[in-house]
Amino acid sequence: MGILNDLWLGLQEFGQFLPILMMFIGVIIGIVVGVLPGLSPSIGVALMLPVTFGLDPISALVLLVSVYLASNYGGSITAIAINTPGTPGAVATTFDGYELTKQGKPLYALMTSLTASTIGGLVGTIILILFSVPLATLALSFESYEYFALGVFGLTIISSLAGKSPLKGFISSGIGLLLITIGFDTQLPFSRFSMDIPDLADGITFIPALIGLFALGEIFYSIEKGDTVKVEKTAKVDLSKTLPVKKLLQLKTIMLKSSVIGTLVGCIPGAGGTIATFIAYDSAKNSSKHPEEFGKGSLEGVAAPEAANNGSVGGALVPLLTLGIPGSASTAVLIGALMIHKINPGPELFNKEPGLVYGIFVSLFFANIFMFFVGLMGNKLWIKIIAAPKSLLYPIILALSFIGSYFIQNSVFDVGICIAFGVLGWLLKRGDFPTAPVILGLILGKMIEENLRLSLIKGDWIDFFTRPGSLIIIVLAIVSFFMPYIKKKLMKKGV
Amino acid sequence: MNVKNYIAGIVLVFYFGLLGYLYLGIGQGKTYPAKPISIIVHSKPGSAIDYMARKVAEIARKYSDVAFVVENRSGTQGLVAMQHVLDMKADGYTLLGVTKSFVSTVMVNKSKVSLDDFLFIANMVSDPEALISNKERNFTSLSDIIEDASSGETTQVWIGPGTGSRDHLMAMKTWETLGINATWIDYKSGPQSILAMLRNESAVYVGNPADIKGKTDLAVISIASDKRLNALPDVPTFKEQGYDLNESMWRGFAFKKGVPEEAREYVTKVLQDVVNDEEWKNYCNETAVFSSFEKQEEFTKRIVQETVETDHYLNKAGLLVSYVNKSSIHLLIVFLIVVSVVFLLLFAFNKFSRREFNYDQVIGASILSFSLFFYFQTTLFQIPETVNITSPALIPRIWIITLVFLSVILIIQSKTKRKQPVKATPGTVLIIIALLLAYLFAMQWIGYFFTTPVFILAAMYLLKYRKAAFMTINAFGFVLFSYFVFNKLLHIDLPLGWWFI
Q1: What is the pLDDT along chain A (495 residues), one digit of tens a residue?
Q2: Are A398 and B459 inside 8 Å of each other by CB?
Q3: Above 60 in pLDDT, residue B405?
Q4: Does A143 contact B201 at a Cβ distance shorter than 8 Å?
Q5: Nearest residue of A to residue B397, measured between CA atoms
Q6: For residue A328, how many other CB atoms are within 10 A of its CB?
Q7: Residues 319-358, chain B: which have Cβ within 8 Å of A?
Q8: Which residues form the domain of A468?
């Protein structure tokens, strides 16, 4: 067996002191990066890149992929604990994760997220090892038409995020979609809507907006409600109540399915893990026996996005290693690392350097398992933080959001964006407008516009429906959009 | 005394120790260079210029008494990095990594930053532009491309990242030199362009030789340099095929103007030593670039020449217009008019249908005002006729019209709320927001380490937390924690403040 042989080579390459040490360090740094709001996986990988210059190629790459993997998990911790997605991929985790915390069951959410992340990571790695060549064909077949269709598919998820009032949900997503058009035009080097303000020429930086909308918005809202002065109602609940293993086992199908979704979407260059989390969340809701629990603390709602998010890591490595194309911001840094270590990713790499490639795969495997145990220990710490009084915790979260926004580009203006989106989030929450669709709009807006306009230059509107790929995705989009309403109708009939 | 008081005391001792450590060393030493020199890079780690800067920093250790430290400040195609260097003192401790794309960046953006503000001290490498195609096309020379361009019924398509980018201008220059007609499609990014090439979607991709590394389906047809590259000995130059075309992306270093002469001399000397180092030659071969050291005089002359040329091609492409043809003040007036009209209409609507203002209506009307204001701005977009694009107003208008429609429905549907949104005390929230803004402002001047504990203490007090020991541990402990995580673990320097550096 060729693969077994290659894996053995990989194991030998990885199984030395330095690479294993780098995996440990990488996982721990990755979790820290994920937990800190503002430091996304790509920034974490970029920060570690200079450190790897002095290492041998395998140790360098193990360090970077471990950081990449673990930061994707780490983002969910703050999403669950304090409604602050530490990374963009953890946005969907806040929907149910933070609800569970509010209900006094943070460990339920944390355990589910940790298990789902680990399973997602493992499934992603296995798919990467077994199917990277056919998946590369999928990645290659995605043209602007399919990207546009995928963007639209992503948008239809609003119908399941909108909650009580679909109208308000649509308005929220419209706000996100419009705001992301600020900045450079997707086809010309000119800035739109920047109103002659130099800092706005590049548009809205995504991560400060994300932190503002979720972390600051939530804090402002709960200060206004007077949550901080009230006696902690969670104090009566035993926060350290652990999740029964039986409940975890019930989630196995959802975790596996979401891991596969994550890996598939992750391997499409430019689509990325964040979109995968939303698609997985939506698909879990649509197939669930208890869709009404979503958004109110459903364990499935935590498991799905987390499995998808970590599954996307394996996926993102497919186009990177097989085609030499970075599919996400993090892998764009990884490709830099490969070049610096004189490794040319591409079709020849698997033949030329099987030890290195499979060494990375093997390290991903072990990194996942190590991450699980670090996560278990970490959970005890996070519980203590959650139990701290809000009046002690909120100032710290504000300060963290502050540095988090600042450090993305060393920009004071970005902190201003964070505060402005905090105010926006607060105003929306007061009026029962969901904030998640704003983020969805911000994430998908650029992808939709760029690819629609590129497609229209290359061809015509009709091409979206004559190409099988885009047609399938558009049909899926329509189904996904109407699914929640159809289900509601059917359930009413059933009653 | 209580344990928590002891801990609070220890935290304070460490905090003041940290302050001493951070601030007492500043400003010592008289002769240049007295402290590390930072190299500001306008793109993310791993990019071509970032790698070059880091390589220089690495080799320079052999020749310089102080370290060179690379700092990435990305954004607005390099303007963020340029502006940052201009904001710093011209004391010779901030070096800017510069590339040829800066020439068009400042022109297209009509930015206040000008290349004249910089002293271009050394050009380091030149990365030749290359024409790349899929092997299935069987192009082996420029004449194959010309033949294909003139034989086909459809216009030949050339692709690459960006409109008005160096690659785009290179394409225009090549068409002119070869005497062919072709169209440019902007694929936004290098990776997306390369994907399209792997699918054989277009004839030519304008990029750099390093782009095809590891991609067996792609081939470099020609490079636009004087001589062949060591890394690609089989690829002919334009000149060899009878076309006089030279186009390279250079990368070098610049200081802010007004830098002391000793600093300029010192850094130029170090860079020259770096270029002569054996390691540097290896770096150039690996990354398929030419080492092309030029000192200030030549380098500046080159930039002046290229400015003229870039201006010519940008004009030809019609890219020297701008969307922004109204000043901020002008737009503000328009915005205020829109807001007043919308809210007057809302007032009239409520009078007419006998309703009272409610929160949903206010939100709806605000969104309506913003949408209409954005719509007004889309009418100001000027589109150059010469480039092949769809209207930049298309997508924003779709979102705007949707939002207008939805917010009108929201206003009409909304009824006076059954109950007010809980017992609200927005006063505290407003004070917190003010506090955040004050923190932001103060941090730039007196730095992170002084302002952060003050902010945290104030915020805790405002939220009615009153246990002094825990407040101390929380506020000062957080600063220690963040110093450890950011400065030590992640190597990001927290700002010390403009007053002190």
Answers
A1: 578 888 998 999 898 999 999 999 999 999 999 998 888 888 889 888 888 888 899 999 999 999 999 999 999 999 999 888 888 899 999 999 999 998 888 899 999 999 999 999 999 999 999 998 888 888 888 888 999 999 999 888 887 777 778 899 999 999 999 999 998 888 887 888 888 777 888 889 888 999 999 999 999 998 888 766 554 444 455 666 777 888 888 899 999 999 999 999 998 887 778 899 999 999 999 888 888 889 889 999 999 999 999 999 999 999 999 888 887 888 888 888 888 888 888 888 888 888 999 999 999 999 999 999 999 999 988 888 888 888 888 999 999 998 888 877 778 889 999 999 999 999 999 888 999 899 999 989 988 999 999 898 888 888 899 898 899 999 988 988 888 778 777 777 765
A2: yes
A3: yes
A4: yes
A5: A178
A6: 27
A7: 319, 321-324, 326-328, 331
A8: 2-494
Segments making up each domain of chain B, as ranges? 1-30+423-501, 35-127+250-316, 130-246, 328-413
Q: Which of A67, A170, A178 to mutate to test the interface with B (most CBs of B within 10 A)?
A: A178
Cβ <8 Å between B47 and A336: yes
Cis peptide bond upstream of A468, omega within 30: no
DSSP type of residue B231: S
CB–CB of A457 and B214 under 8 A?
no
- A454/B455 Cβ within 8 A: no
Give B248's strand partners: B128
Q: Does B414 touch chain A (CB under 8 A)?
A: no
What is the percent of chain B where pLDDT is above 70? 95
* First vs last C-alpha separation in chain B: 40
Q: Tell me which residue in B383, B421, B456 faces A395 most closely, judged by beta carbons.
A: B456
* Per-residue tokens: B312: 């010519």
Judge whether residue B26 has pLDDT over 70.
no
CB contact under 8 A, B463 and A175: no
Classify residue B120 by its DSSP letter: E
The predicted-structure confidence for B223-246, as pLDDT tens digits, reads as follows: 999 889 888 899 999 999 999 998
**Tally of domains within chain A:** 1
The residue to which tokens 């939709």 are assigned: A448
- CATH architecture of the domain formed by B35-127+250-316: 3-Layer(aba) Sandwich (3.40)
DSSP notation for B284-339? HHHTT-EEEEEEHHHHHHHHHHHHHHHHHHHHHTTTT--S--S-HHHHHHHHHHHH
Could you give phi then psi for residue B238, rounded to 5 degrees? -60, -45
Selection from A462, A188, A143 nearest residue B201 by Cα = A143
Q: How confident is the model at residue B326 (pLDDT cuts 50, 70, 90)?
A: low
- Rounded Cα distance, B229 and B237, in Å: 9
Q: Is A238 on the interface with B (CB under 8 A)?
A: no
Local structure of residue B237 (DSSP, 8 states): B
- Residues of B in Cβ contact (< 8 Å) with A326: 191
Q: How many CB pairs under 8 A join A and B?
A: 301
Mutate to test the interface with A, among B399, B423, B472 (most CBs of A within 10 A): B399
CA A443 to chain centre: 11
Report the residue of chain B nearest A46, measured CA to CA.
Answer: B45
CA distance B101 to A123: 43
Residue A330 identity? S
A342/B contact by beta carbon, under 8 A = yes
Any A CB within 8 A of B405 CB: no
Beta strands B94-99; B248-256: pairing state: antiparallel
CATH assignment of B130-246, among 2.40.10.10, 3.40.190.10, 3.30.160.100, 3.20.20.20: 3.40.190.10
Q: Which residues of B touch A175 (CB under 8 A)?
A: 367, 403
Alpha helices in A226-271 (DSSP H): 245-250, 252-266
